[in-house]
């Protein structure tokens, strides 16, 4: 185990290991004014969306299902307003995982959460923000590009993007610089279709990611949606594709990790952070 952690930390320092963040990294992220926990996983996000009222078991299974149900009843704008209000408002403070990862000055990081916490942590450096989007007309591309110039995000194009800058990839969207989300079943069907077709990742990132390894933190692989997005975002990874820190992994998660050549570590991300902190001390 310690050998794996040492290899992970060395890879992060060298810039050839890409953190891939799931809902679990938001554990312990609170609103200081109220002590409220940021909703992140499927159940907490659904209950936040419904005002605390549980939905049917079929809809409670996964947030995209529940979001699709309410989108059909209340419209797309309801989902966008909800996610913008939850994640775009002031009050959430970056957690220890966000602050630690930001301190590493990484060249590339994938954050599948819809909050702005990593963006807050990256506010001290120029970087490229890649935001996943869905159900666009007039183009197959399913991303928008921005560059943070230390004051604001400004839109950029494939041609004007600086590939030497750090990249923060938010495949499921973010409220900033404008609310853009991949949330409902219909969003994911469209996004994954174009992702599989090669239209959801900029070409220069495809070149940049060849042979990289990935570090899954706070991620689970029990839902088809997460697995399908993950599978395409780590395309062209190294033969040994990386590590997934998953405590008490299910048999399905063991199979996914074996299939994707990921070493499954029976631990959560705080253990890695503890090891990193001890290494620096």
Task: Spell out the blueprint of helices and strands.
Layout: H1 2-14, E1 17-21, E2 30-31, E3 36-37, H2 42-49, H3 57-60, H4 63-74, H5 76-88, H6 96-103, E4 108-111, H7 117-121, E5 127-132, E6 143-148, E7 153-155, E8 167-170, E9 173-174, E10 180-181, H8 185-196, H9 203-208, E11 213-217, H10 224-233, E12 242-245, H11 251-259, E13 262-265, H12 269-280
Parallel strand pairs: 1-4, 1-11, 4-8, 5-8, 11-12, 12-13
Antiparallel strand pairs: 2-3, 5-6, 6-7, 9-10
Helix pairs in contact: 2-4, 4-5, 4-8, 8-10
Organism: Stutzerimonas tarimensis
Pfam family, one: SIR2_2
Protein name: SIR2 family protein
Q: Care to count the β-strands? A: 13
What Rg is obtained from the alpha carbons, in whole angstroms? 18 Å
Distance between the termini: 20 Å
What are the segments in which pLDDT stays under 50 over at least 5 consecutive residues? none
Summarize the structure.
It contains 12 helices and 13 strands. The protein is an alpha/beta fold.
Structure description:
The chain has 281 residues and is of the alpha/beta class. The protein folds into 2 domains: 2-35 and 90-280; 36-88, no CATH class. Helices cover 40% and strands 17% of the residues. The chain has helices spanning 2-14, 42-49, 57-60, 63-74, 76-88, 96-103, 117-121, 185-196, 203-208, 224-233, 251-259, 269-280, and strands at 17-21, 30-31, 36-37, 108-111, 127-132, 143-148, 153-155, 167-170, 173-174, 180-181, 213-217, 242-245, 262-265. Helix 11 (251-259) links the parallel strand 12 (242-245) and strand 13. Helix 4 packs across helix 8 (185-196) and helix 8 (185-196) runs parallel beside helix 10 (224-233). The radius of gyration is 18 Å and the shape is globular. The two termini are 20 Å apart. The model has no long low-confidence stretch (mean pLDDT 94).
């Amino acid at each position: 185990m310690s050998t794996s952690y040492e290899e992970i930390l060395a890879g992060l320092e060298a810039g050839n290991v890409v953190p891939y963040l799931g809902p679990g990294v938001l554990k312990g992220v609170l609103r200081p004014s109220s002590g409220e926990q940021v909703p992140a996983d499927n159940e907490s996000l659904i209950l936040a969306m419904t005002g605390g009222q549980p939905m049917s078991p079929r809809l409670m299974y996964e947030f995209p299902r529940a979001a699709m149900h309410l989108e059909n009843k209340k419209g797309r704008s309801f989902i966008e307003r909800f996610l913008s209000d939850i994640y775009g408002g002031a009050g959430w403070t970056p957690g220890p995982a966000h602050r630690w990862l930001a301190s590493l000055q990484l060249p590339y990081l994938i954050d599948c959460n819809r909050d702005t916490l990593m963006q807050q942590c990256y506010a001290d450096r120029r970087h490229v923000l890649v935001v996943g989007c869905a159900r666009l007309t007039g183009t197959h591309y399913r991303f928008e590009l921005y560059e943070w110039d230390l004051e604001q995000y400004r839109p950029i194009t494939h041609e004007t993007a600086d590939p030497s800058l750090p990249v923060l990839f938010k495949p499921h969207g973010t409220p900033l610089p404008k609310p853009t989300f991949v949330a409902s079943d219909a969003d994911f069907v469209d996004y994954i279709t174009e992702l599989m077709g090669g239209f959801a990742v900029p070409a220069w990132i495809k070149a940049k990611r060849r042979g990289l390894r990935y570090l899954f933190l706070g991620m689970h692989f029990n839902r088809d949606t997460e697995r399908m997005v993950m599978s395409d975002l780590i395309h062209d990874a190294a033969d040994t594709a990386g590590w997934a820190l998953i405590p008490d992994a299910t048999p399905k998660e063991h199979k996914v990790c074996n299939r994707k050549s990921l070493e499954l570590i029976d631990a959560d991300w705080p253990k890695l952070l503890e090891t990193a902190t001890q290494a620096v001390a």
